[in-house]
Amino acid sequence: MLKKLLLFALAGAALFTIGILIGHFSDQKNSSSPLPEWVQEVAQDVDENLIEKFIASGGQRKQIEENPSIPHMATTAGDEATVEYMLKRWQDRDTGLDAAWREDYRVYLSFPDKDKPNNVTVVRGSDVVGSIREKEKAYRAEQDDPEVVQPYAAYGPAGHAKGINAAPFGVIGVLVYTDPYDINDGKMSDENETYPHSWYLPPSGVERGSYSTSFGDQLTPYLAAKNDTYRIDEEDITGVSPIPIQPIGFEDAQMLICELDGSEAPETWQGSFPCKYNLGGPGFKNTSHFKDCDVQLDVYNKAEIKDSANVMGVIWGSVEPDRYVIYGNHRDSWVHGAVDPSSGTAVMLEITRILGQMVKTGTWRPRRTLIFGSWGAEEFGLIGSAEYAEEYISKLSQRTVAYINVDISVFANATLRASASPIAQDVIFTASKQVKIPGSDTVSVYNNWMQHSNRTSPTHGLIPNMGYLTGAGSDYAAFMHYLGISSMDIAYTYDRSKTRARIYPTYHTAYDTFDYVSRFIDPGFTSHQTVARTAGNVLLRLGDSILLPFKCSDYAESLEQYLSVAVENFEAELKTNGISMEPLKEAVKSFRTAATSLEQTISSSDVVSNSPLKARRINDQLMLLDRAFLNPLAFPDKYGFRHVIWASRSSSVASFPGLADAVVKARTSGLKQDWSQAHKHLSIVTQAISGAAHTLTEAHAAL
Amino acid sequence: MLKKLLLFALAGAALFTIGILIGHFSDQKNSSSPLPEWVQEVAQDVDENLIEKFIASGGQRKQIEENPSIPHMATTAGDEATVEYMLKRWQDRDTGLDAAWREDYRVYLSFPDKDKPNNVTVVRGSDVVGSIREKEKAYRAEQDDPEVVQPYAAYGPAGHAKGINAAPFGVIGVLVYTDPYDINDGKMSDENETYPHSWYLPPSGVERGSYSTSFGDQLTPYLAAKNDTYRIDEEDITGVSPIPIQPIGFEDAQMLICELDGSEAPETWQGSFPCKYNLGGPGFKNTSHFKDCDVQLDVYNKAEIKDSANVMGVIWGSVEPDRYVIYGNHRDSWVHGAVDPSSGTAVMLEITRILGQMVKTGTWRPRRTLIFGSWGAEEFGLIGSAEYAEEYISKLSQRTVAYINVDISVFANATLRASASPIAQDVIFTASKQVKIPGSDTVSVYNNWMQHSNRTSPTHGLIPNMGYLTGAGSDYAAFMHYLGISSMDIAYTYDRSKTRARIYPTYHTAYDTFDYVSRFIDPGFTSHQTVARTAGNVLLRLGDSILLPFKCSDYAESLEQYLSVAVENFEAELKTNGISMEPLKEAVKSFRTAATSLEQTISSSDVVSNSPLKARRINDQLMLLDRAFLNPLAFPDKYGFRHVIWASRSSSVASFPGLADAVVKARTSGLKQDWSQAHKHLSIVTQAISGAAHTLTEAHAAL
């Protein structure tokens, strides 16, 4: 009844844009024909004043100080304390989110045995003539905390290896260390050079880590690790070491390396120790006190299946609750993890505090739903985020606009660093132009970034050099590679002209503490604040803009760049093998054409006045663009890597990963079947790009 | 500027529903505040008057008569003529679509050699003492058309096999025929019993077909078969016969079978021939004129890569052009194909003629985009539709609401038959209630259908028995199984109480002609019209309704039915092997809860008056529900089957296919690793159902 009446009534109505209509109503507040509420709501765009206000807020030091400053390795009591802390914060009645809860997975972890510590000794027969430290040296109470986990290589198997020249034909055990040359700019003395005197790693510091090549729970690939989930046999796990491994400090490494005999190691293997690094073929030097000794490695690591929690929080969207912007940071550390991950947690907590307060006071609610994830067991292989992605794969694939990852928020306090899907470059630039660097009212994060790292874009000229997310270095992996959700990873980092350190020196050691952060990484916590302002700005734009602030032409530029590298490196050889690159060139061209055309549509559209379905249509095209590059069969041997543009790559040629790796393999082997695989990968990436271009064309064109 | 003004202006506006607003305007046509056009457009629901008008239209006989009535096997000159005919019709300025075009793929086909016909002979030494017919007997000019392809088994390899007792340990060649018992209700004489006297198959009739277990182009699995696409080696094709095969008529089969010696074949193997069917172990009978003879099979089939065309047509949507309803029918036949596929083509052409006319005269345009596909090379393995799905996988996955397949539209003129994703049951019922059966003003297609085939639903009571799309019998396969698009397959069919024929008897023979259809299948073409009215009704509802006419509670019922069969057949055994079915039960329960909750939301929503984003949100949930059941890794050995509920199944237990097949295998082998696979498939289907349930929950709940 209503419908028929409606159609009849509408037939005679005249044609006006809502812009005109609203102008009319703004003049006639007492008119008898007010607009329905939803017409107003859907026309609300991002509020620049609110963003300015957001940028002006923030107190990250407080966040870090309040955050439980205890060792909180995944699934330990310390981890549980942080779970409860997150829940308390996100459920706070004045500054919390709409809802927060925990989600547990039963995951496969690996720990040292507290009763039987791993050890490395130098033995002559049954005599122990030397041994490495079991613990890192204590300079403050933190290092003496009984909850500090002994240095170990997670997922390295238990086992005993003895020898030094015992295995000429096969390695039977591995000791891992980082040379002071690579981490400490050569500094080695804790009397005045290293922590607690500087940010450098003390001689006894040992980097912990997960020794596995894939991510997610290893017993339940492609399935969420629930109680009754099917698990593969432990012996079927791939990508882990078959032999024992133990990380050691450089002090202990020096003790061993400088005594080694044998031929001289290559120049690039030499480090900062005051000795020649030899390969050790025949064992220790005849002149050494370790002469005729073996090195004995005893590893007692144990695998355990344990409950690990993600803490989830949400602010519901008003106009498009079924569109999600996800912001995440892991919660677990190896030891205290003041930098990794608490520097990121502090940023997330400050962002949620400010937004939560606005929601609780009724001054703001985002257009889209914002989801916050405090991931568990990241250090063991991005497990919490990967299990979340596996459990909610359908819902997340259908609805997620973007994923923002801030893991370590401040590696160092020199400049912003961002890696992302190219579609997000523009919104990161916009945000970074709006935020000023610490201590300046004039220099933007953008300009400072461009000074530290830049490139010349064919479209934009000189711009900051944004990286791609080609690996699985943090929790963006499951979102970017498995789900094809446009992701970004944001942090503050080094001035590369001032240090060679491959990462901040106390990474994954017992020296990554509040004391360390507040004295050496970011005194005053102003870089933390800068990251919060930048990432929060990106979050607000993604959450509130009527049109998503995504630029597909920047994606076209990245594809063109990859194409030109591929042509330069591979075309001649492919041609020799009867394989044409023309279809790939055509595909990239069609992508550029489609991107240009969509951006013309966008710039000529008045999405505020038009039907909200128009903006939704364009937004769906932008939201789903990265999804179009997924191919679940492209990389059968790489768990979770489905994105044919950004999957991990072995080849050093910075181009399409499947193609690059296949050509390099075929080039090496010369085998016909390997060239055939190169052709296959060429077709896969070509059709993925064509398919993505199809999704960018107007809805009614070229169906 | 405008935006800020806008927000300010809106702040003071009062809250009214658009229903009230429209009522207001309907009374005051001269008001100074008319509604913007889009507000009217988005509130237009399906027009029942238009559907009534549509049902009253139609002239299918004309469509069939006009349709080129020549042999049009894929890629032949006859096929090209039908391509041109389709284009002419869909590009007609008065009755055509908005646009129509062809899309070609280079596909791998298989044909007999015109110069060296396949033959089957009975030989004694070098003497030929008998041979089968090379061609079907001509009763009319059609059978004598030189374009009639000789009977053959597509993709059966070329080869020569001789023997009858020559291969006790292995079959070396296969002759295929259909017994008159199974196809002709026992009728065998063309003097008065079979065509041209009835619909039964003449003795020389031979069913052609494709002998391959997978679908889509066989050289380019998962890739669209373009010119430069990577192709696998022919020898790597799986699912085809390694030995020669030849189909023969029952006349020739009788000549051989009734002469066979050996032990008696099982009762179920006996047929209508007036002899005992023996297994033939020792060869022909001693009393036979074929005594001591061999059967010689010479097959000269050749594989060829040829260009095959889809013809595509479109009517653009007005409000949601980025939502597609696809309607398809294949175009290629084996011979004249008056039933298969022209009965379906006639229905599609009549639907597009009526809709095209409405569009051209400006009286109607659908809310969503309607895409029509005239698929090529279906008979060789659903190739045209599969290549289309592979090429446009991203765009189609993101935007397609449903796929309607009408292949053979009339098998027989007794009753409607439909198979579909359960979500589409309701809209098919709605349409079939509105259409009357041929020759009646009172009996609905629905009631007639229920008389012929019904079941008792826990929710609905007695209803027509709609089937599921568990196989790859027609072009719905790529949509349903590969893309997870809710699909349906609609036709008119037999009164099963009146015939045992497994399909209409002249299927894939040279007797499937206009003469046959007009005299035996559907005199008056009224059943064709009934199918057009029903399928067209479904199409209009899917294309025009504000809310998609999909019911997820019907999906819940199907899952519950599959669950109860699984529990009954597998639970005890699984438990014995330490595998719990509780998580699956929980998942199905959570799906039911979510479906109920979504349908409550739907029934309490005034989507006409609300923001169009609300309907869009619900529609996206409904549209993407089948997508949530896709798992590209669940069935690695079955090309294109990704839907974990409806994938093809070997087990006779009508339940979840991966689970059913794995349990049956484990039950047979008793091997631990096979039970492990059963557990894996249990987890896969459990998590798919849970994941689907998540997508049905309110956008903001349980993220």
Automatic annotation (TrEMBL), chains A, B:
Please give, as recorded in its UniProt entry, the membrane topology of this protein. Single-pass type II membrane protein
Instruction: Establish whether keyword Methyltransferase is in the entry.
Output: no
What does the record give under GO molecular function? aminopeptidase activity; carboxypeptidase activity; metal ion binding; metallopeptidase activity
Peptidase M28 domain ranges (all copies): 310-518
- Report if keyword Ribonucleoprotein is assigned: no
Q: Name one GO biological process term.
A: proteolysis
The cross-references to InterPro entries, in alphabetical order and at most eight, read: PA_dom_sf, Peptidase_M28, Peptidase_M28B, TFR-like_dimer_dom, TFR-like_dimer_dom_sf
Task: Identify the Gene3D superfamilies for this entry.
Answer: 3.50.30.30, Transferrin receptor-like, dimerisation domain, Zn peptidases
- Which Gene Ontology cellular component annotation is one that this UniProt entry carries? apical plasma membrane
Tell me where in this chain the Transferrin receptor-like dimerisation domain is found: 579-696
Localisation: Apical cell membrane
> Which Pfam families does this entry report, sorted A to Z?
Peptidase_M28, TFR_dimer
Q: Which cofactor does it need?
A: Zn(2+)
Q: Which UniProt keywords apply?
A: Aminopeptidase, Calcium, Disulfide bond, Glycoprotein, Hydrolase, Metal-binding, Metalloprotease, Protease, Zinc
Q: Name the PANTHER family for this protein.
A: AMINOPEPTIDASE NAALADL1, N-ACETYLATED-ALPHA-LINKED ACIDIC DIPEPTIDASE
Q: Which family does it belong to?
A: Belongs to the peptidase M28 family. M28B subfamily.
Any idea what job this protein has? Answer: Aminopeptidase with broad substrate specificity. Has lower activity with substrates that have Asp or Glu in the P2' position, or Pro in the P3' position. Lacks activity with substrates that have both Pro in the P3' position and Asp or Glu in the P2' position. Lacks carboxypeptidase activity. Lacks dipeptidyl-peptidase IV type activity.
Question: Know the name of this protein?
Answer: Aminopeptidase NAALADL1
